[in-house]
Amino acid sequence: MRQNHSFKTESYTIYGSLSQGQDLMEGILKECRKHHITSGMVSSIGSLRQAGYVLFKAENGHPNGYGNELTVSNPVELVNCTGFICEDENEELDLHLHGTVVEEDGSISAGHFLKGKNPTLITVEFAIVCGKGVQASRTFDENLGFRVINFSK
């Protein structure tokens, strides 16, 4: 059974924006590399040309993976987007990002964003909060059946 874990650390914040056409996740990861960030929390708002995401699927009330890729092919407002920057099993930079988008007609969609599927329409503004000395590692948890992030100092 996975145990809760937490700790306090000093932090600093990176502020920025992504330009038109830049992918949401790839753009944020590019900025992380630029500032040598390997762990942190990101929050963003803006607009996207389209949105690509997945939702978890459940069987008998228990999550058992992700469903098919969903796409909103129309321009959307990115009204809420939050995630964690970490490294994966291969020590490659990774981003676990969830968000909510709204279409022009008011239709709302939300989910787990996919890399390369969310190009910026006008701009995306973001803030990345980084803890000094924090390591975040996203690995597969056999008991849960999902990749999860573990934090350590």
Tell me the radius of gyration. Answer: 16 Å
> How far apart, in Å, are the first and last alpha carbons?
21 Å
Q: Please, how many helices?
A: 1
Topology as a string of helices (H) and strands (E): EHEEEEEEEEEEE
**How much helix is in the residues?**
under 10%
Give the overall shape, derived from the CA principal axes: globular
Query: Would you identify the regions where 5 or more consecutive residues have pLDDT less than 50?
Result: none
CATH architecture: 2-Layer Sandwich
The overall pLDDT average reads 94
CATH class: Alpha Beta
Topology, number of strands: 12
Query: Largest sheet at a glance?
Result: 8 strands, antiparallel
* Spatial strand sequence of the major β-sheet: 1-10-2-7-8-9-3-6
Strand content: over 45%
Structural class: mainly beta
Q: Please identify which CATH superfamily we are dealing with.
A: Hypothetical protein, similar to alpha- acetolactate decarboxylase, domain 2
Count up the domains.
1
The CATH topology, please?
Answer: 60s Ribosomal Protein L30, Chain: A
InterPro entries: PPC_dom
Protein name: PPC domain-containing protein
Domain PPC: 8-152
Produce a short descriptive summary:
The protein has 153 residues and is mainly beta. The protein has one domain (11-152): 2-Layer Sandwich (60s Ribosomal Protein L30, Chain: A), CATH 3.30.1330.
Describe the structure.
The two termini are 21 Å apart. A hairpin with a 5-residue loop joins strand 7 and strand 8 (93-103). 7% of the residues lie in helices and 58% in strands. The protein contains one helix and twelve strands. It is globular and about 45 Å long. It has one helix spanning 24-34, and strands at residues 11-18, 40-48, 51-54, 56-59, 62-66, 70-72, 76-87, 93-103, 108-113, 120-131, 135-141, 146-152. It has an eight-stranded antiparallel beta sheet, covered by helices on one side. It is mainly beta and 153 residues long. It has one domain (11-152): 60s Ribosomal Protein L30, Chain: A (2-Layer Sandwich). This is PPC domain-containing protein. Residues 8-152 form the PPC domain.
